[in-house]
Amino acid sequence: MSRQATSGRQAVGILDGRLGAALALFSAAEIWGITALYDSARTAIDVELRSLVRAPDGSAQVLDGNRLMPYMAEGSCGFLIAASLCPLIAQHIFEEFSPEEFCTATNIRTVANGGLHLGLAGLVLARHLAYRNSWVTSDFDRADFHYQLALHTFAPKDSQGVPSAFLGGQGGLRLSADFSTGNAGVIRTMDIIDGRRNQWSIFPGLEPLSSIWAN
Description:
The chain is mainly α. The chain has eight helices and five strands, in the order H-H-E-E-E-H-H-H-H-H-E-E-H.
């Protein structure tokens, strides 16, 4: 059995679960015009939606054992990101849960990581894409994001005394510059937020697929 890319006990979400498969199926349906693939994608989403619950704060989150998961890779914010990447998915995801319920989860700031897949950057990106798609009326607070991100950032100095900045990695256990938990994912998130790259670029190499839904 292959090792999951995320920390959850169950394979749910964009990276490990059927949500990512649904994105691929919708893409294939558009590219090759195979109508049956739309049904397969919707079935995959239905299975993923069963993992969602309404938390006490009114947010939609993935229930993983005793944990509520709001993150991009294995939580409810991944649903917002998936829906923004492919509008066809949005119509299906929002039948049972509203965009506002998903966006409430993006307000969570007690997180162990500042990165994209399992931390703060993914929550902020989900909120921004929901705002860009006019699903909610307010974007994230940039000053709050920068302040919170600083809490997850370390600034070691090299032998010449020159400082650099690294995120604390998953759980703050190591300095990380990788795409999942470290600097690279945050840089790509900022690129998208500032409009320098389109939103497909959170999955490197898939940017050309965005032209399918450009109109």
